[in-house]
Amino acid sequence: MSSTANGKNGTWRNWGGNVSARPAREVTPASVDELAAAVRRAAEDGLKVKAVGAGHSFTSIAATDGVLIRPELLTGIRSIDRENMTVTVEAGTPLKRLNVALAREGLSLTNMGDIMEQTVAGATSTGTHGTGRDSGSIAAQIKGLELVTADGSVLTCSEKENPEVFAAARIGLGALGLVTAITFAVEPVFLLTAREEPMPFDKVLSDFEELWAENEHFEFYWFPHTGSTNTKRNNRSAGPEKPVPQLKSWIEDEFLSNGVFQVANWVGRAVPATIPAIAQISSKALSARTYTDIPYKVFTSPRRVRFVEMEYAVPRAAVVETLRELKTMVDRSGLRVSFPVEVRTAPADDITLSTASGRDSAYIAVHMFRGTPHQRYFTSAERIFTAHEGRPHWGKIHTRDAEYFSRVYPRFGEFTALRDRLDPDRLFQNDYLRRVLGA
Asked: Using CA of residue 260, residue 261, residue 262, residue 266, what is the dihedral sign?
């Protein structure tokens, strides 16, 4: 059951390459019972415990020098309940496998993020989201959870059962227990029509409320050093299905968005002065297109160019002002930014530490190519985001701590009190949780 870590001499690394850890041991449990036993054994040995998914977080939220739990054997659909329209899946199931399996059953999640490499537990525990006027994050679609708590017992929760745990554990940061299964709300599979087109930055900002209100899923990418954006509107469609032709899809989604973009970033990293010119070309490379397909083929796309990322949720009413400040900062700073800034939205939800908890939110994500210095850009961006009471994505780079979170999350104390109850000895603690939740 135990194994050594990947990489050199037992070192675990995340996808972005900016976090590494050396656990004392790794465990790959094949059942909930084995997982519970591993938790009890770790407690006896005085070791901390963390579960790790696909390593797509840019923070050290999953890092531990204790016991690292790998969930790759805890995968697959446990059950589908067509009467209540829910599906229960094992925690280690990759979103990609879930999406494909659901489609085969004629079902779909209502909304999802823009990649699907992560495990369901990793994605929901960190608050992964897409964009939506009425539909929220992946965690907001959870109807029930099963988790192994610090004493090795299995706890189930939903709106009716242990509701105070359910309120917090849907985005639990790995602090309340190890998620072993998740029950999601699903619906009959539907079609989405995506309309992608370039639009001037100033126009997107002046029409933002309208674009948000008129579309079920609106997002855009702004290319720093340009006045250009690429917008994407996804809306439900009666059909017919009209996917992007295979060759066109390869050219646009693989060759341009991954291949050429990778090379452009290599050039930009070597010669930063070329970045504004590359940005001008990049912003014009992707032409307008419209296509209709099932949800996961519209919402998600491959991301093969490695980067590091910071993303903050600001109140939706503050997004235009925040973006103007961000553009002014980039223009004046002399920074060279080769990655587009991504902007999405989410409706308010009722999850204790959700970035959209209790307020309609807009997300602004800044990225830097892996291996280029990101510190100055991220620090300057973070200063702008926090001035608007921004809440950072739990899985992306930020410098905030418990003191800050207690101010921007009205229910912060509710979460920490629950943690005191479920994990009084801090079995699931690590440096990241000590910083963001307090000791």
From this structure: positive
pLDDT band at 208 (very low <50, low <70, confident <90, very high): very high
Query: 416 is written with which tokens?
Result: 């920490």
Q: What is the DSSP letter of 272?
A: G
Whether cis (ω within 30° of 0) applies to the bond prior to 240 is yes
Burial environment of residue 218 by CB neighbours within 10 A (0 to 12, 13 to 18, 19 or more): buried
Instruction: Give the burial class of 34: count Cβ atoms within 10 A of its Cβ; 0-12 exposed, 13-18 middle, 19 or more buried.
Output: middle
Q: Which two tokens stand for residue 172?
A: 């639990």
Cα separation, 412 vs 405, whole angstroms? 7
Question: Residue written as tokens 């930055």?
Answer: 201
Rounded to the nearest integer, the mean pLDDT of the chain is 92
- Range with the poorest average pLDDT among 170-174, 187-191, 197-201, 241-245: 241-245
Whether residue 427 contacts residue 43, with contact meaning beta carbons closer than 8 Å, is answered with: yes
Beta strand 341-346 with 361-369 is: antiparallel
Residue type, 130: G
**Which tokens in the block code for residue 183?**
């029950």
Cα dihedral sign for 13, 15, 19, 24? negative
Residue 227 to residue 231: CA distance in whole angstroms: 13
Composition of the chain by helix, strand, coil, percent to 5: 35, 25, 40
Farthest CA pair distance, the chain: 60
Handedness of CA 49, 54, 60, 61 (dihedral sign): negative
How far is 370 from 17, CA to CA, in rounded Å? Answer: 8
pLDDT tens figures, 79-120: 999 999 999 999 999 999 999 999 999 999 999 999 999 999
Q: Which tens digit of pLDDT belongs to each residue from 243-268? A: 877 766 665 666 566 666 677 767 77
Tokens 């029509």, located at residue: 193
Cα 395 from Cα 376, distance rounded (Å): 20
Using CA atoms, how far residue 129 sits from 133, 261, 347, in Å, is: 12, 24, 11
User: Tokens standing for 221?
Assistant: 């990418």
Altogether, the residues listed in the chain come to a count of 439
Q: Provide φ and ψ at 367, rounded to 5°.
A: -130, 155
Q: Helices 375-387 and 319-333: crossing angle, nearest 10°?
A: 150
Helix ranges restricted to H, 88-207: 95-104, 120-125, 163-169, 201-206
What local confidence, expressed as pLDDT, does residue 418 receive? 98
Spatial contact of 21 and 63, defined as CB atoms under 8 Å apart = yes
410-420 pLDDT, tens per residue?
Answer: 999 999 999 99
Give SS3 for 344.
strand
